[in-house]
């Protein structure tokens, strides 16, 4: 425990004193786990704000984190400034949204051109703007929007880079069709159990300008899924 605390303290103090990211070089397994812990805290707590804070601002956040974790005397009063944080973060989040909207324009255009080419080559587009292509026709029942389904899938962006795959994990996924992106809700209802299909989903039916943080999906990205409908869960 003392070793863990000393390593943790050293890493936090290096960051808090203004060190750049590349100067922190975890080498042992213990140091790498602690570094991963920091990545996890950043991703899960402030991941939505990625790219919003400058190096100097990150240093101040790290200093506050270090003071709180190590029970040091804080430089400011949390009782005074804590109540301001929700409003402060909301304003910073508005900056994020504005930047994402600006950055998404090129991605939306790229996706539309991709879909237009598919349609020109004979693919069929649904009324919503998604391209649905059957690969293997199923013979079972068709799910409704409120059903739970079990599927295998691979998701990629239009460059072909894969961002998620139950096939790669070797375990199918089960979820409700009212709990996923609109393109999935629509596309799976067009399938029958035992079937496979390719869904090309424009950003307005996917994650729009707010994709999951930390991944390769950019604001405005068109997504491609190859899906096998294994079962409708009773």
Question: Can you describe this structure?
Answer:
The structure is a single chain. With 234 residues, this protein is α+β, with helices and mostly antiparallel strands. Helix content is 43%, strand content 18%. It folds into two domains: 2-75, no CATH class; 105-233, Chitinase A, domain 3, CATH 3.10.50. It has helices at 2-16, 29-46, 55-69, 78-81, 85-120, 166-169, 182-189, and strands spanning 131-136, 148-157, 162-165, 173-176, 196-201, 223-233. Strands 1, 2, 3, 4, 5 and 6 form a six-stranded antiparallel sheet that branches. The protein starts with a helix and ends with a strand. Mean pLDDT is 85; it is low at 1-21.
Topology at a glance:
Layout: H1 2-16, H2 29-46, H3 55-69, H4 78-81, H5 85-120, E1 131-136, E2 148-157, E3 162-165, H6 166-169, E4 173-176, H7 182-189, E5 196-201, E6 223-233
Antiparallel strand pairs: 1-5, 2-3, 2-4, 2-6, 5-6
Helix pairs in contact: 1-2, 1-3
């Amino acid at each position: 425990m003392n070793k863990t605390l000393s390593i943790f303290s050293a890493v936090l103090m290096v960051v808090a004193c203004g060190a750049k990211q590349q100067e922190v070089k975890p080498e042992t397994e213990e140091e790498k786990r602690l570094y991963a812990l920091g990545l996890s805290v950043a991703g899960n707590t402030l991941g939505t704000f990625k790219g919003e804070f400058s190096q100097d601002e990150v240093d101040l956040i790290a200093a506050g984190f270090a003071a709180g974790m190590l029970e040091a005397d804080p430089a400011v009063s949390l009782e005074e400034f804590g109540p301001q944080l929700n409003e402060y973060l909301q304003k910073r989040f508005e900056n994020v949204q504005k930047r994402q909207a600006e950055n998404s324009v090129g991605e939306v255009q790229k996706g539309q051109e991709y879909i237009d080419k598919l349609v020109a080559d004979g693919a069929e587009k649904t009324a919503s703007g998604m391209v649905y292509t059957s690969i293997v026709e199923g013979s079972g029942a068709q799910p409704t929007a409120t059903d739970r389904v079990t599927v295998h899938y691979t998701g990629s962006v239009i460059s072909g880079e894969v961002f998620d795959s139950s096939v790669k994990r070797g375990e199918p996924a089960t979820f409700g069709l009212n709990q996923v992106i609109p393109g999935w809700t629509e596309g799976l209802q067009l399938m029958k159990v035992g079937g496979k299909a390719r869904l090309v989903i424009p950003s307005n039916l996917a994650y729009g300008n707010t994709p999951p943080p930390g991944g390769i999906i950019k604001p405005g990205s068109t997504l491609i899924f190859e899906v096998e409908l294994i079962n409708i869960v009773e």
